[in-house]
């Protein structure tokens, strides 16, 4: 991490106005904002660590935990909603033991929700590591996640 972070910081002057672009670069590099990196950014821009954390918390684009190896994205769009998306999301939370925006402690799964994935005719939908799973039911969620004994 040290080498990459130094590389990122080397292309900035260290002004407060650069905080967000720096955090975006850090997240692009590591997939999230590690605490150690945020502390280094604070030192580099000469601001309190709490300020960096406060700014990063304000924007939904920033993550404080790494993504899991399996990324589960549930659609919460209108078409999916009326066909049972809330029950699908509840089942995902129950099976994985995490809330939206979280990653399981073993870093195996992350759970996100989105407004629409563009497959409304197949609602309700999920995307698991880029693959669309259509016409989901809570039972299908359980089967998908237990496939290969992953949960
Ligand atoms: S609303 Fe879910 S795919 Fe469009």
Beta content: 5-15%
Query: What's the shape?
Result: elongated
Helix content: 40-55%
Number of strands: 5
CATH class of the largest domain: Alpha Beta
Bound molecules: FE2/S2 (inorganic) cluster
> Which class best fits the helix and strand makeup?
alpha+beta
Could you state the order of secondary-structure elements as H and E?
A: HHHHEHHEEEEH
Gap between N and C termini: 30 Å
The radius of gyration is 18 Å
Architecture (CATH level 2) name of the largest domain: 3-Layer(aba) Sandwich
Mean pLDDT: 92
Largest sheet entry: 5 strands, mixed
Widest beta sheet: strand line-up = 2-3-1-4-5
CATH superfamily annotation of the largest domain:
Glutaredoxin
State the CATH topology of the largest domain. Answer: Glutaredoxin
Low-confidence spans: pLDDT under 50, at least 5 residues?
none
Q: What is the count of distinct domains? A: 2
- Count of alpha/pi helices: 7
